[in-house]
C-alpha cells in the first residue's frame, strides 16, 4: 500500500473512531477491573520472582500499556500474554535467568519474532552487533530503559549493553513497526525496544554469581537489596559486575565494568518515585570485518579466521592494521527519575527527568606524509622530531598513526504526561517531551612508534601543526532540541470488549552546530517538524481470543553525524563528507491486522504492511582511518509480511515455543550514485531476510531446567543491486541448570551451563558495510560489502546464589 492510500485509510479510521466516541454514553456501563501495569518481579539467577506491590498509579485502560507482572509464564517466559493492539513480544525475567548471564539485551531479543540479530561475540562485549526488525535496522527503532531514551544520539544506535545488567532486567519487550505514544523516542520509525529494570526487593538480601567459559571468559556479579528501610517507604539495590573475554579470532581482550543502582520511594496511595543510575566503563578489542571472498577462503582453510583479521604483531612500515589501534572505548552514565502520582481518583501524573553522558573513541590505523598534511582544507606543516618516520614503497616519507574518533556527548530532558479517565470506559493521555543533546567530535592523530604503539590511547598526545593547532579532518560541535506533544484517547464499548483508540503526536526537531576547521562550512542548522497520527481498534471475541487492527505513523530525524558536518581528508584537504542543512525525516506508515488466542495453546499472528520514505541505511565507514558509522539515503521502501508466534502450556514440565516471519521488503526508488542512476526500484532491500524462524523447547521440573533453541535466518542482500548476499545460517543454543538445596546462609544456589552455537557452525552474523553494487554496473565500479563473523562454539558455566 503506497503512502497516499495509507494516509487516506488512516484519516478515515480516525474519523470513524471519533464519530463512535459519543455513542459510549449510551453503552451499558460496568466497573472496570484494574490490573497492575507497573508491578515488577524481582529477577533472580534461577528464575524465581518476588511480587512487588503494585503502585497506586497503575492504569490498565491504556491499550498500549505493557504489563510487567508475574503471571503464568508461557513457554518458560519466552512468550507473554499481550493485550496492546499491535504486535508486541516479550521475554520475561524467568527466561532471562536461563539465558547466558553475560548476554546483552540484543542477544536476549534474538529469539523474539522477526528479530534479525547478528552477534560478533558470545559475551555481549562487542560493538559489532546488529538488530533489524521487518526490514528496519536498529537506528530506526526507539530504545527506552526505565522510561528514558536509550540511544546514542550521534548515530541513533542503542549500545544496549551499557544500560543495565541482565540480572537486573525484569522484562525486555519488542514492539514491531511502531512505538507507544507516551514514550520518549526520536528514532522509532520501525519499532521500539523497552527494557524494564526490576524493583528493589521488599526484604534485605542479595545475589552473587560467577561465570567462566570459553576464550577465558569471566564474569562476576554481586547485588545487594536493602529491603524497606524502617517506615520510610524507601528501598534500594546496588549491583556491580565485571566481564572480560578474549577475542575469539585475532588478538586482544575485552573488558566491561558496570554499576546499577535503583532507589524506590513508595508514597502510599499517592504514588511512587524511583531513581535509577547506571555506569559503564567498556573496552572492546574488535574483530575485523570480512569480505565474502575472504570469509570463504578462511573458512576453507580452517585457521580460526586469524588470517584476514587485524594483525597480531607489528612490523614498522608494513603493518597497516595492528589490533591495538582498533580497540573501542566507551564510558556511560544514565540517570532516570520516574515519578508517578495520583492527583485524584481518575487523574494521574507521570513525570520523568533524565540525564545521559557518554565519552567514546572508535579508533583505527592510518598513515600520512608530513609533506602533504591538511587541517580541514588548509595545508599545514608539522615538526616530526620524536616521530618514527619511514620511507614507504613509493619513496615517500611516511608516519603511521592512531586515528581517533573521539566524541563527548550529554543529553538532558523530561517526559511528562497526565492520564485522565472521564468515565470508567474512557482513557485520555496528554503529554510533552523535551530533550536537549550536545556533542563535540575531534578525530585527532597520535603517532605510532616503531613497535606500533601510541603514546596515548585515550585521545592524548595528538599531533599538532607548527602553529599549535591539532591536525584533523573532523572537528565540530552540535546540539539538538526535541519538543514533542502527544495526545491519545481510548474508548471502550460493549463492556470494554471493543476498544477504539486514536492518537496524535508532533515532533519538532532543531539541530545546530559549528565546524571548527578551516573550510567553507562554519555554521549549520535545520528545523524539521513532523505530525504523526495513529489509530487502533481491538475486540475481545471471547475471553481467550482477541483481534485488532491499527494504522500508525512514526518518524526519525536524519542521523546527525552522517548528515550535517563537513569532513575533510587529512592527506588532500578535500571534503570527504558534504554536510547539508536539508536533511529529511524518515516517515513510516504502518498497518497491522492481528489475532491472539490464549487457551488450549497460545498463538499471536500479525499481518503487516509498511511504507517508508526518506530511508537511511546504516553502514560502516572509515574517516581518515577511524571506523565510524554512516548512513546512505536510498529513498522509499515497502515492507509486507506476516509474523507468527506459537506455544503450548507446560506438559510434564516441557514447554514448546515457535515463531516465524515471512518478509517481502523492496526498494521503491532507483539509487543515484556518482551521477549514475542504478535500477534499484523493485529490488529486495538490504538486511531483509525473506524467512526467519525460532524453534525452542523449555523444560522446568523439580530442580532441573533446560532450554534448547534453534534459529534459522535466510540469506540477506548486502547491496542495493542485489548482486551479493550474506549466506543463510542455522544455529543452536542450549542451556542446562540445576537448583541445589539451601546451604548455610546461601539460599537457592544454582549451577547453570550455557552452550552458544552448539554445533560450532562457522557463519557470518550480520552485514557490516552496505554498498550500491558488488559487480560493475553501468560504469559504476563494484564495491565489495563486508560482514561480521559470528562466534564459534562457546561454553560458559555459572554458579549463583542468594543470601
UniProtKB/TrEMBL annotation:
<keyword id="KW-0732">Signal</keyword>
<keyword id="KW-0675">Receptor</keyword>
<dbReference type="InterPro" id="IPR036942">
    <property type="entry name" value="Beta-barrel_TonB_sf"/>
</dbReference>
<protein>
    <submittedName>
        <fullName>TonB-dependent receptor</fullName>
    </submittedName>
</protein>
<dbReference type="GO" id="GO:0009279">
    <property type="term" value="C:cell outer membrane"/>
</dbReference>
<feature type="compositionally biased region" description="Low complexity">
    <location>
        <begin position="39"/>
        <end position="58"/>
    </location>
</feature>
<feature type="region of interest" description="Disordered">
    <location>
        <begin position="34"/>
        <end position="63"/>
    </location>
</feature>
<feature type="signal peptide">
    <location>
        <begin position="1"/>
        <end position="27"/>
    </location>
</feature>
<keyword id="KW-0472">Membrane</keyword>
<keyword id="KW-0998">Cell outer membrane</keyword>
Amino acid at each position: 500500500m503506497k503512502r497516499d492510500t495509507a494516509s487516506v485509510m488512516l484519516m478515515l479510521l480516525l474519523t470513524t473512531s471519533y464519530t463512535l466516541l459519543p455513542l459510549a454514553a449510551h453503552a451499558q456501563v460496568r466497573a472496570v477491573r484494574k490490573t497492575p501495569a507497573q508491578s515488577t518481579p524481582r529477577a533472580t539467577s534461577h528464575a524465581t520472582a518476588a511480587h512487588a506491590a503494585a503502585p497506586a498509579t497503575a492504569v490498565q485502560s491504556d491499550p498500549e500499556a505493557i504489563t510487567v507482572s508475574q503471571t503464568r509464564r508461557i513457554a518458560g517466559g519466552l512468550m507473554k500474554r499481550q493485550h496492546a493492539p499491535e504486535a508486541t513480544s516479550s521475554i520475561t525475567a524467568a527466561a532471562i535467568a536461563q539465558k547466558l548471564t553475560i548476554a546483552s539485551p540484543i542477544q536476549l531479543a534474538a529469539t523474539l519474532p522477526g528479530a534479525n540479530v547478528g552477534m560478533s561475540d558470545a559475551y555481549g562485549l562487542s560493538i559489532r552487533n546488529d538488530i533489524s526488525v521487518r526490514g528496519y535496522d536498529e537506528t530506526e527503532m526507539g530504545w527506552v530503559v526505565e522510561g528514558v531514551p536509550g540511544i546514542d544520539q550521534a548515530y541513533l544506535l542503542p549500545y544496549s549493553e551499557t544500560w543495565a545488567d541482565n540480572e537486573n532486567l525484569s522484562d525486555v519487550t519488542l514492539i514491531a513497526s511502531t512505538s507507544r505514544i507516551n514514550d520518549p523516542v526520536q528514532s522509532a520509525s520501525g519499532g521500539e525496544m523497552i527494557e524494564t529494570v526490576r524493583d528493589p526487593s521488599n526484604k534485605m538480601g542479595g545475589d552473587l554469581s560467577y561465570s567462566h567459559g570459553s576464550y577465558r571468559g569471566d564474569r562476576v556479579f554481586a547485588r545487594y537489596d536493602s529491603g524497606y528501610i524502617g517506615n520510610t517507604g524507601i528501598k534500594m539495590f546496588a549491583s556491580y559486575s565485571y566481564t572480560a573475554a578474549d577475542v575469539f579470532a585475532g588478538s586482544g581482550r575485552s573488558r566491561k565494568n558496570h554499576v546499577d543502582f535503583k532507589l524506590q520511594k513508595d508514597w502510599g496511595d499517592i504514588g511512587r518515585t524511583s531513581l535509577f543510575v547506571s555506569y559503564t566503563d567498556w573496552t572492546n578489542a574488535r574483530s575485523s570485518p570480512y569480505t565474502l571472498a575472504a570469509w570463504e577462503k578462511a573458512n576453507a582453510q580452517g585457521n580460526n579466521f586469524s588470517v584476514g583479521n587485524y594483525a597480531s604483531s607489528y612490523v614498522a612500515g608494513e603493518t597497516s592494521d595492528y589490533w591495538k589501534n582498533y580497540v573501542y572505548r566507551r564510558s556511560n552514565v544514565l540517570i532516570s527519575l520516574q515519578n508517578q502520582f495520583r492527583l485524584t481518583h481518575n487523574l494521574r501524573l507521570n513525570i520523568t527527568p533524565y540525564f545521559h553522558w557518554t565519552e567514546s573513541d572508535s579508533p583505527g590505523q592510518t598513515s600520512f606524509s608530513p609533506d602533504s598534511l591538511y587541517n580541514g582544507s588548509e595545508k599545514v606543516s608539522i615538526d616530526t622530531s620524536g616521530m618514527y618516520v619511514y620511507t614507504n614503497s613509493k619513496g615517500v616519507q611516511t608516519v603511521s598513526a592512531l586515528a581517533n574518533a573521539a566524541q563527548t556527548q550529554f543529553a538532558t530532558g523530561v517526559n511528562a504526561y497526565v492520564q485522565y479517565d472521564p468515565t470508567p470506559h474512557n482513557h485520555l493521555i496528554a503529554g510533552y517531551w523535551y530533550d536537549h543533546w550536545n556533542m563535540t567530535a575531534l578525530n585527532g592523530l597520535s603517532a605510532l612508534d616503531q613497535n606500533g604503539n601510541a603514546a596515548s590511547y585515550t585521545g592524548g598526545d595528538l599531533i599538532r601543526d607548527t602553529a599549535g593547532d591539532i591536525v584533523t579532518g573532523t572537528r565540530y560541535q552540535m546540539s539538538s532540541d526535541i519538543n514533542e506533544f502527544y495526545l491519545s484517547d481510548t474508548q471502550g464499548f460493549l463492556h470494554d470488549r471493543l476498544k477504539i483508540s486514536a492518537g496524535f503526536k508532533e515532533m519538532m526537531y532543531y539541530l545546530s552546530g559549528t565546524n571548527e576547521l578551516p573550510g567553507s562550512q562554519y555554521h549549520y542548522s535545520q528545523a524539521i517538524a513532523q505530525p504523526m497520527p495513529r489509530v487502533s481498534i481491538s475486540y475481545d471475541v471471547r475471553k481467550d481470543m482477541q483481534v485488532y487492527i491499527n494504522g500508525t505513523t512514526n518518524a526519525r530525524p536524519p542521523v546527525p553525524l552522517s548528515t550535517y558536518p563537513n569532513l575533510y581528508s587529512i592527506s588532500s584537504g578535500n571534503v570527504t563528507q558534504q554536510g547539508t542543512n536539508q536533511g529529511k525525516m524518515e516517515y513510516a506508515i504502518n498497518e497491522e491486522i492481528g489475532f491472539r488466542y490464549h487457551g488450549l495453546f497460545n498463538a499471536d499472528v500479525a499481518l503487516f504492511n509498511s511504507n517508508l520514505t526518506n530511508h537511511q541505511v546504516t553502514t560502516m565507514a572509515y574517516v581518515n582511518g577511524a571506523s565510524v558509522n554512516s548512513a546512505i539515503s536510498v529513498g522509499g521502501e515497502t515492507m509486507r509480511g506476516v509474523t507468527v508466534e506459537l506455544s503450548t502450556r507446560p506438559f510434564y514440565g516441557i514447554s514448546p515455543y515457535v515463531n516465524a516471519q515471512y518478509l517481502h521488503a523492496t526498494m521503491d526508488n532507483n539509487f543515484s550514485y556518482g551521477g549514475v542512476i542504478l535500477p534499484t526500484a523493485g529490488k529486495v532491500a538490504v538486511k531483509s531476510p525473506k524467512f526467519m524462524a525460532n524453534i525452542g523447547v523449555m523444560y522446568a521440573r523439580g530442580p532441573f531446567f533446560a532450554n534448547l533453541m534453534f534459529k534459522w535466518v535466510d540469506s540477506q542482500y548486502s547491496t542495493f543491486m542485489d548482486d551479493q548476499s550474506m549466506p543463510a545460517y542455522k544455529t543452536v543454543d542450549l542451556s542446562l541448570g540445576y537448583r541445589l538445596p539451601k546451604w548455610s546462609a546461601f539460599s537457592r544456589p544454582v549451577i547453570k551451563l550455557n552452550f552458544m552455537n552448539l554445533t560450532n557452525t562457522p557463519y557470518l552474523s550480520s552485514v557490516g558495510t552496505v554498498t550500491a553494487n558488488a559487480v560493475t554496473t553501468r560504469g559504476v565500479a563494484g564495491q565489495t560489502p563486508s560482514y561480521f563473523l559470528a562466534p564459534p562454539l562457546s561454553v560458559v558455566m555459572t554458579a549463583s546464589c542468594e543470601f
